[in-house]
Amino acid sequence: MWRHIASNALTFFIFALFLLAGLVAWGSGQYKAAGPLAQAICLEVPSGANMRGISNNLEGQGAISSATIFRIGSDYAGKAGLLKAGSYLVPANASMTQIVDIVTRGGQSTCGTEVVYRIGLGGTRAQVRELDPATSRFEEKVDFDLTTETAPEEYARVVAAADTRFRVIVAEGVTSWQAMTGLNAIDTLSGDISAVPSEGSLAPDSYEFTPGTDVTAVLDRMQSAQETILAEAWANRAADLAVSTPEEALILASIVEKETGVAEERARVASVFENRLRKGIRLQTDPSVIYGVTQGQGVLGRGLRQSELERDTPYNTYVHAGLPPTPIANPGRAAIEAVLNPDVTDFLYFVADGTGGHAFAATLAEHNRNVAAWRAIEAERAAATGGN
Question: How far apart are the first and last CA of the chain?
Answer without folding.
Answer: 78
